[in-house]
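hey so i finally got around to running the thing on that chain from the lab meeting. sorry it took forever, my laptop kept dying and i had to restart like 3 times. anyway pasting the input first so we r on the same page abt which one it is
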Amino acid sequence: MGIATYLVSGAATHSVRGYHWLMLAGMPAALLSSERGKRVFLDWSPLFALWLAYDRLRLIQPLFYARVAVEHPFLIERTAFGWLAKGEIPAHAAHVWLGTHTGNLSLAIEWAAQIVYFSHLFVVPLVILALWRLGASRERYRLAFRQHVFVFTILNFSAIAIYVLLPVAPPWWVSLNGFAQPTSELVSQANMAAAMPGALIQGMISNASQWFAAVPSLHGGYPVLLLLLTPWKRNRLVCFGIAAYCCAMWGATVVLNQHYIVDLIAGGLLALAAWGVAKIVAFHRAR
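ok and heres what got predicted. didnt touch it at all, straight out
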C-alpha cells in the first residue's frame, strides 16, 4: 500500500524518476528473498526511507513560500560573522570575489569547493558501507554500523521536521532576489548561474527537492557525526583527517553561497544532539 501510494502521488505530480522505480521495486524483491536478502534490506531501510522522504519534499515546497524566513537569518549572520568580511555576509563576499576574479586561483577554488560539496553524497554512504562489510565478520564493526545508521537516521529525520516547521532561505536566494518572499514565479525564474558559482552546483540545486532547507545544514552536520562516531578515535591521523574534511566542507558551502555560517553551526549542534540521544538510548538498553 505504501509503495502504491508513493507511486500514485509521484505520477499525479509528474515527479517520478527512473531511480524511484528501481528503489521501490527492490523493496518487495528483498522482502521475498532469502533471510540474507531480508537482512540486507532491513539494515539499510532507514536510509532508503530517509532518501525517499526527502525526495518528496519537492511536492510540498510551494506550501512553504509564505513562511520562508529570508531577512532574519541574513541579519543574524551579518551580526555574528560580518566581521569576517568587513561587514558583509561571508557567503556573499565569497560569491562576489569569485565572480570578479577569473584567474586560475579562483577557478581552482571553485572546482575544489564543488568537489568537496558533492563528496557528502559518497563519503557518508561509503563509510557506512565499509562498516557494514566489516561487520559481516566482526561484531565491533557490526555495532558501529548500527550506531551510524541509527544516529544518521535521527539527524536526518529531525532535520526534515525542522525544514517543514521552519523553512529558511539560503544566502544564494538573497543574492538573487534580495529579501523578497519566495513565490512560484520567482522560483520558476531563478537564474542559478547568477546566484552561485560552478556548473555542477547550479545543476544540483536547480533539481533539489527543497530550496528552503538551509537550517540546519546537513553538510555541516554529517562531518561532525563522522568525527563523533568513528570507531578509530584512538587513531589521531583518522581524527585529524575527518576534522580537516569537516573544515573543508564548511568552507565549501560558504564559498559556493549555499549556507550561512549559522546554518552550519545549527547542523553541527543537531548532529551533536542526535549523537547524545543515541548515547542515552544505548545506556538505557544496556541497563
